[in-house]
User: What shape does this take?
Amino acid sequence: MWFRRDLRVDDHPALAAAAERGDVVALWVADPALLGAPHHRSPVRLRFLRACLEALDAELTALGIPLIVRHGAPALVLPAVAAEAGADRVHITGDVTPYATRRDEAVSTALGRDGVALTCIGGPWRVRPDALVGSSGNGYLVFTPFFRVWDAIPVDARIATPAALAGPRFPSDGLGMLPPGEPPLPAGPTAARARLEEFIRSGDVDRYGEMRDDMASDATSHLSADLRMGVLSPAQVGRAIGAGDGVHPSRQAFWLQLAWRDFYAHHMERHPVVARAAMNEKFRGIQWDDAPEAMDAWREGRTGFPLADAGMRQMAETGWMHNRARMVCASVLVKDLLLDWRRGEAVFMQGLVDGDPANNNGGWQWTAGTGTDAAPYFRVFNPFLQAKRFDPTGAYVRRWVPELANVPDRYIHAPWTMPEEVQVKARCRIGTDYPEPIVDHATRRVEAIERYKSAAERMGVA
Assistant: This one.
């Protein structure tokens, strides 16, 4: 059993299938090409990954076998371990990124030369892509019809944890290639189930629709990192919230978020071009600015747009960011600073404990207006109106931008409008303690729309 983004033993179709065939070797491969890729050089996520692997090893050991870790290219490691074990089959859970697809094809070819089969069962989704082909036979480009069909498919029944596992023992290279230290949140299946249970027990799942955008209350599930590493499966979440013939209306808003995860995973699998370019071809030629100082200001949370600065600082400190802040930060980068959305996507992947290639890419392209089922390019988030609506008292901003802690409510989202005497009283001098907005939102909104329109016209699209 080659573990990747499925670091659990319960509700694990591939592990159950491997156990049914006899002895099992549990393997995780430290792939230098993957761990060294810019999108995956995330200290916070790698610490979480290490803790998840340690938890998986403990679960496997309790069942009778350890987790074996090997360093190297999977196309070399897998045949070698299969030969050591005398294995005739390698079981995996699917993945959707272009790299994962190429890697698995190479592994399959290498194993095949030795007469060993690579068997893929399940994936990071709740519903398999081949179950949602749409009228075109190539999936859905719009979320609403996707969700209608996705929602009608029953949640899979639980696959029980194997009662016991047995297999040969081999040397392990260990987890020394992953950074040590405390993960940003408790890691592993037990911790994930505890978060899920608390989300339900507290009633937050039933208030999700009304509270998910209340940035100060932070009433979201915090399950994104667990789903990213597969210590919790989407089916486990679905069963826990009572999804069957349709989830209860009070939980529908949360259920929709799981559907968005599947939507973006299906989309990346079918359209791998999105990993490196706009899905919408007419927006591949947008003229982006080259402004290193603006990029640094955005990354470091000192743009003068308080809500965006708060979001970037929350990510820097915790490895997580509220979803509403993610949208605002993305919009500020693309529509206000006129910087390429791919640069922001990379920053998020390097900073987020839950950085998921498909989900992160889909969210960025949605906000940038370049992807499938995206916000129209002329719809531009106003960061100040967003702040007034979703952080009305400024509690979220004050928490993450302490320079603004004493700014009165009426100025908290536009602190540069404070009169001089108010700045003195608030101990926040604009231009010294906190910057003015580095660009004018209204002016940049017009410029952004014009650039999108020009790109489309160059492609011959009105």
Q: What stands out?
A: Strands lie at 2-3, 26-30, 67-71, 89-92, 117-120.
